[in-house]
């Protein structure tokens, strides 16, 4: 029985082992994968001295007949039929029937195995690639592999091993990964007879995380599950503010296979920016499902490292998913978990009474802002409104102040009301066509296009802000990732200081990726990405240029104004008063930023003419 037999291809095996069996943990990895492939529902892994004196991997899988067991040690013998194209896919484990002969060539290797068809098990012992014996053994169905004296025959390799603690840590890490990835398999890990962890088959990911990594981590994670563009990302991520001192609990699985991937790990770390202190790392157990063709696995011989063929897509998807989960959590916690306090997103005025906040930032939410509120307010009652400038052709300037003819207006502040009254004693008549405010000016009737007026006020307010370098940047609650094509990326990168002057806070974030950290106060958070992209497109076309700041600022103020929306309901008359006051403090109150009229006045003379009257008795008959 104890016939010594040198396996064929021994040299090739040792060479392959050199590539694939880097350290004890690589053996554990290969053997655990084989057990999973064999349909095991229980796998026990034991090691001693960081795996250098012993590694035992035992499973209750299908096991092997004697014939199969001997065959499995032949180079390129595999029961896992694969097509050549499968080599590019991530869906199969193992690697091309090389693991067992490779391991057996550089260790003392004992295999004990039994399949369902046989009463007796088979035991094969190999030392440094030489077969020592093949014999019967008592064995439950399944396979037990025991490896000792790793690299004894190749002292050069043994020298490269790190400390026992380090090698042990690699094994623990490896078994944890497989235990997480295979919820239908129960895992036990022992170090020299002592149980390190035990996870039950069929448990949820969260309870497995609890069993494998401890309760504290399991209680500090959020579930995520999202789909996009044929990819699905699910798993657990640390709650905002929960961090660790190392990356050890940042684990990634692509198509259920543990992988190392810079794209995902960068995406994760960046997404926690602002949520955890500098120098700390988030916790994540992330599972990405993606078509195997979209992944390049031939980066590392043991397929540990993978690359995405469309890196930016994968990264964008991961960042968005993680940020959304963090945002939901932060919102549900009422913002208390944030490292920095950030105010609610700024909005363009949707109602007129909000219009006053367009050029200042004094809403209660913004008071919480870390950025100082702007000193300037264009239209407080103490500022007498600037006289209206000459009207463009075809537009008569509004009439001079006259005694009020209209109904009483409810104005909160008497002095504000007073200034309106003195400058332009228009009385508000009503709301027409869903967009015009109608006034009696005493010398005629005015139709005010409220949206156009708001646009003018916003536009000039922004111009003044730019001129006086009072552009205010609103920090975003959560930084928004933006992905650009390479040319746009380069354009933006070059123009970053310029964008800062415009009120954007944008930071480069890896190749072709940026992070919007702050936006001008007038810009809504949800429009930030689109608007930034629009500006970058203008940069590329040359219609926007950092060295022609005046032109740029005008363009931006116009684009900002164009975002003003029509009111949905009739404004309050006191809000109209305020709008008028602001409008007439503008340089060009009679047009919107594009030069279209903001108001139309129909003079008394015109009215008389239309009524075909010559001698009009001005007064009570009208209104
Ligand atoms: P591969 O996994 O690529 O097939 P290996 O050298 O790892 O190559 O294994 C060779 C063969 O040995 C496998 O195809 C399988 O048939 C058999 N085998 C290995 N380990 C086990 C196991 N734990 N249980 C059952 N069969 C196994
Ligand atoms: Mg294998």
Question: What this model shows, in words?
Answer:
The chain is an alpha+beta fold. The protein has four domains: 195 residues, Histidine kinase-like ATPase, C-terminal domain (Heat Shock Protein 90, 2-Layer Sandwich); 128 residues, Ribosomal Protein S5, domain 2, CATH 3.30.230; 122 residues, MutL, C-terminal domain, dimerisation subdomain (formyl-coa transferase, domain 3), CATH 3.30.1540; 99 residues, Ribosomal Protein S8, Chain: A, domain 1. Helices cover 32% and strands 22% of the residues. The strands form five sheets. A nine-stranded mixed sheet has the order 1-6-5-4-7-3-2-8-9. Strands 10-11-14-12-13 form a five-stranded mixed sheet. The protein has a four-stranded antiparallel sheet with strand order 17-18-19-23. A hairpin with a 6-residue loop joins strand 4 and strand 5. The longest helix has 22 residues. It starts with a strand and ends in a 13-residue tail after the last helix. About 16% of the residues have low confidence. The structure holds adenosine-5'-diphosphate and magnesium ion.
Short description:
With 623 residues, the chain is α+β, with helices and mostly antiparallel strands. It is built from 19 helices and 23 strands.
């Amino acid at each position: 029985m104890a016939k010594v037999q040198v396996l064929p291809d021994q040299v090739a095996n040792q060479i392959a082992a050199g590539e694939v069996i880097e350290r004890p943990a690589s053996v554990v990895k290969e053997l655990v994968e084989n057990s999973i492939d064999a349909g095991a529902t229980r796998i026990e892994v034991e090691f001693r001295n960081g795996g250098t004196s012993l590694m035992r991997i035992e499973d209750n899988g299908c096991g092997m007949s004697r014939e199969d067991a001997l065959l499995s040690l032949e180079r390129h013998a595999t029961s896992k039929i694969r097509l050549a194209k499968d080599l590019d896919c991530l869906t199969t484990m193992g690697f091309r029937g090389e693991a067992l002969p490779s391991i057996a060539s550089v260790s003392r290797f004992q295999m004990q195995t039994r399949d369902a068809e046989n009463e007796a098990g088979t035991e094969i012992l190999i030392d440094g690639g030489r077969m020592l014996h093949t014999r019967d053994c008592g064995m439950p169905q399944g396979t037990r592999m025991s490896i000792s004296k790793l690299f004894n025959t190749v002292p050069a390799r043994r020298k490269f091993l790190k400390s026992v603690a380090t090698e042990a840590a690699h094994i623990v890490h490896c078994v944890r990964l497989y235990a997480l990835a295979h919820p239908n398999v129960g895992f036990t890990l022992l170090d020299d007879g002592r149980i390190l962890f035990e996870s039950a088959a069929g448990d949820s990911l969260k309870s497995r995380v609890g069993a494998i990594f401890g309760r504290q981590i399991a209680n500090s994670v959020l579930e995520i599950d999202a789909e996009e563009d044929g990819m699905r990302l699910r798993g657990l991520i640390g709650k905002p503010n929960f961090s660790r001192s190392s990356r050890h609990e940042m684990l990634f699985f692509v198509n259920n296979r543990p992988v190392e991937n810079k794209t995902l790990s960068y995406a994760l770390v960046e997404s926690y920016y602002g949520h955890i202190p500098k120098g700390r790392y988030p916790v994540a157990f992330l599972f990405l499902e993606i078509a195997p063709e979209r992944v390049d696995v031939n980066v590392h011989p043991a397929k540990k490292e993978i690359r995405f063929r469309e890196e930016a897509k994968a990264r964008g998807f991961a960042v968005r998913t993680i940020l959304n989960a963090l945002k939901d959590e932060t919102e549900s916690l009422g913002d208390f978990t944030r490292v920095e306090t950030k105010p609610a997103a700024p909005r363009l005025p949707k109602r007129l009474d909000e219009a006053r906040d367009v050029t200042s930032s004094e809403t209660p939410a913004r008071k919480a802002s870390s950025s100082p509120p702007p000193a300037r307010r264009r239209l407080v009652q103490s500022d007498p409104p600037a006289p209206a400038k000459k009207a463009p052709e075809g537009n008569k300037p509004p009439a001079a102040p006259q005694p009020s003819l209209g109904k009483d207006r409810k104005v909160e502040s008497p002095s504000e009301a007073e200034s309106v009254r003195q400058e332009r004693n228009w009385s508000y008549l009503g709301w027409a066509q869903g967009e015009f405010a109608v006034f009696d000016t005493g010398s005629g009737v005015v139709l005010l296009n409220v949206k156009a007026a708001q646009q003018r006020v916003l536009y000039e307010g922004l111009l003044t802000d730019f001129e006086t370098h009072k552009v205010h940047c609103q920090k975003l609650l959560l930084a928004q990732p933006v992905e650009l094509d390479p040319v746009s990326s380069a354009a933006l990168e070059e123009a970053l200081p310029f964008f800062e002057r415009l009120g954007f806070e944008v930071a480069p974030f890896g190749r072709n990726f940026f992070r919007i950290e702050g936006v001008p106060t007038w810009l809504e958070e949800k429009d930030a990405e689109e608007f930034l992209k629009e500006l970058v497109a203008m940069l590329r076309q040359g219609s926007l240029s950092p060295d022609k700041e005046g032109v740029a600022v005008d363009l931006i103020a116009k684009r900002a104004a164009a975002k003003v929306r029509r009111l949905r309901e009739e404004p309050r008359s006191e809000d109209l008063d305020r709008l008028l006051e602001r409008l007439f403090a503008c340089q060009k109150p009679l047009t919107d930023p594009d030069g279209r009229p903001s108001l139309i006045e129909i003079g008394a003379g015109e009215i008389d003419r239309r009524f075909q009257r010559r001698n009009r008795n001005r007064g009570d008959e009208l209104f």
